[in-house]
Each structure stands twice: as C-alpha cells, then as structure tokens.
Amino acid sequence: MADTVDRYSPASLCRRRVLRACTAIAAGAAMARVLADAAGGVKIGMRAYTAIFPGGTGAYFDHDYYRDRHLTMMQRLYGTALTRVEARKPLHAEGEPPPPYAAIVNFWIPEPEVFAKASAAHGQDLMRDKVHFTNVEQKVQSEAVFGATGNSASAIQVGDRCLTVLYPYDPADRFDHEYYRDRHLTSLVELFGREAITRIEMRKGLSSPNGREPPLYSCTANIYVADARAFAAAARENRQRVADDVRRFTSVSPVSLLTEVVGAFDA
Hints:
26% of the residues lie in helices and 34% in strands.
C-alpha cells in the first residue's frame, strides 16, 4: 500500500505529493494521508510561527488563562488571519527535573500579508495581555510547513499528546529537510504504526519574525501520539534505529519534549 507524504517546494511554495512504498505495521493498513485540512485548513507550504516560552526557576505560565482568555481574544481579533493556533504544555514525570520550556505555541498563517495587518492592528492588545499569564519573554521564529502525514491538524484535540522535536539551528550543520520529509518521516510511520502515531508535521525554520536573523531551529516537528503505551513500546523497540537515522540528515542533537495540547482553535 502506498504511503503519501505532503511536500513543500521552497521555490514555489506549492503543494506536491510524493509516493513512497511503506509496509504498515498495524494490520497491514497504511496511515491515513492529508493534503490539506477541510475548508482551507493547514496546507503544505503555509507559513507558520512557533513561539516558545522558556521555563526554569522563577518562570511562570498560566495555561488556563492562556487557553480561556488569551486564545479567545486572539481568535476574536485575528479571525481568518490565522488558520489554526495550538498551545501545548510540556510534561515531565514526578522526580524528573522540570522541562526547559513552560509552553510551546504553533500558529498557522494562510496569508502573511493579512496576518501582518492584523498584527499591526491588534498586536499591542495581545502584548498587554501577556502580563496576566506569564513573566517570561517568548522566543519566536518564522517557518513553513514542509511535510505532513496522518490525520488533519484540525483533528487534534485538547488533551492529545504530542512529542515536540526541535532541531537547533547551526550554520555549520547542513540539515537535510528533504531527507527528513521523504525518508525519516515515513520511516517513523512504518516503525511506530497507526496505533502509536496519528499525525506528524514538520516545519522548516526560515528566520526570526522580522526576517533579519536566522531561525532558532532548523526544523520543528510535531509527532502526535495515538496511544501512549503503544508509542512508548515502539520508542523503546526502535530507539537505536531512529537515532541512527537522525544522523543521516543532521549533526545536531534534537530537543525532544512530550507535550499536551491545552488549547486550540481553527478559523
């Protein structure tokens, strides 16, 4: 059965499809594919932002306020200037050190010009609201959705878990985004199976929001978990295979965080 991965062409920001043979582990069935969400949702080539709020000693982030008040304000002010916004909380087991980040938020932007106008009109309102939910400064980068497979982004719900993987930008590293999309992404689907993963999305880091600085991360990826036990078992079984494959497309060590979706909205 063929495995289809959505692709991004940086030259044209167009959407293409690549077919790769993939043997499904789950009862011989391949993972579902998505070219785009219904009603103009997340598409390959779409611009995006990732905002990361640092954690650590003294860091404060009110996820309930962010979900119930800040996201509601953002949806009302920005409207269709945002296709989707998803906020996630990093998780950690009891006895483990707290994660280095307090929150991670993804923004999907259908039209950069429309988003820029909305930000010019309403950005200060959002900035003034920030004092109510955090005392730290977020780090933001501009991205493009480069590849995806599985369920639609809009199918992701509050409470779903997501392995967030961040590959720090290093000018000496030649991150191979095509290999990640065409080989690594489909390999993860094959090794873990549908019982463990519902969706994978990768985004290519472009620059700082103003375009003047390099991105913080060459690549950010969301790997959405279907079943925690199945995912953990597959991770234990395939840990070395995955680590070996990572070395084929980058020389940097990724930062991996298990996160939980605490709030989201779709235009």
